[in-house]
Amino acid sequence: MIPSKPSGNRRGCVARPGRQNVTTDRRPRRFLVATLSLVGTVLAACAGEPATPAASIPSPVSPVAATVPAPSPVQDLARIDSQGAVEFVVSPRSWTREANGTLEFEISMDTHSVDLSMDLAELSTLQTDLGVSVPALDWSGGSGHHVVGVLRFPAASSTGPLVLEGAALLILTIRDVDAPSRVFQWEVASLP
């Protein structure tokens, strides 16, 4: 009599009396072990020696780029207000200390939900710590959601004194642009 081979299927299941089919295919287990080994190796590599300090890595900046002068004082004087849904960036632009001159601010407004078509000249006041106050002359900005323009003020008040004369602090107030008021301040001594 020829011994019979155990019956089985393609996956290696062997029927044995008194037992349920047993899977002899070990591929899923091998895949899991290989994956865990790979993950362990990667984690060990990441937790190894700390990276080389940045100071010892040569800089890709050319010597020419390193000699570029520092930003102008006007850029350093930018003020930002992010109340409500509108962000304002205000920078002094031009200063004259003569009675017939103007004091100018470059203003950038950025939003995704508010129409910025208002006339900032009607909503703005410039004053000093001495109480001298002047309304804006005009606003050159447009409309939309991303607006840049120049807000101009007279260098002298209607009663005669120069706005900057004897002042230590200059205060620009802009009202009712998605916030009750926005206040920007500069020390007069720091202005160009």
Describe this structure in words.
This protein is α+β, with helices and mostly antiparallel strands and 192 residues long. It folds into two domains: 11-48, no CATH class; 74-190, Sandwich (Immunoglobulin-like), CATH 2.60.40. Helix content is 17%, strand content 28%. It contains four helices and nine strands, in the order αααβββαββββββ. It has helices at residues 27-46, 63-66, 73-76, 120-123, and strands spanning 79-81, 87-95, 102-110, 124-128, 133-135, 138-139, 146-154, 169-175, 181-187. Strands 1-2-3-7-6 form a five-stranded antiparallel β-sheet. The longest helix is centred in the N-terminal third of the chain and has 20 residues, at 27-46.
What are its keywords?
about 190 residues; alpha+beta; Immunoglobulin-like; 2 domains; 9 strands
